[in-house]
Task: structure prediction
Amino acid sequence: MINERLYLRNCKLLGIIILLSLIVNSCYSFTGSSLREDMKTVKINTFPNNAANNLPSLSQEFTVALQNRFLQRTTLKGAVEKPDLLIEGEISDYTITPTSIGTATTTETGNTIQALQNKLTITVKVHYENSKDPTLSFDRTYSDEAVFNSDLDLNTIETAQVRIVNERIINKIYNDIVANW
Result:
């Protein structure tokens, strides 16, 4: 008898929670998108890698990740001609620099100073055109970085670090265009 009452009470409570969730979901959009309803298409051109230091796959990886972000998280469709939104630009800088120095070690040729940590920095120039509202169009430069231990093999971790930095830059671009933060 007590278990039956408890079961009925929990069912009612669950029903109320589901009803409230449906009501709230129908009233609000949680996408955070500020795109106008008449914006239907986007064209994202290839971002060439014009950095002095060069990772051969960077251009393709960045461009595909940016395209995926817009096509998967918005209702925009890809366009070849006359898009509502045009995004293009270039990868202008790609550097790996030491950020902290370790102790000097003595070798046959003298003292050698070893970096403890390195920093990967990627800079991307973006040209954005909004054909529906040209006042929102812009030219901006985005940059981000990732720090990693220097004792790790660069060839092994470079891809993962590039993915992290690309994701951060793409978040900034997406937020400036779609979320309008």
Summary: The chain has three helices and five strands.
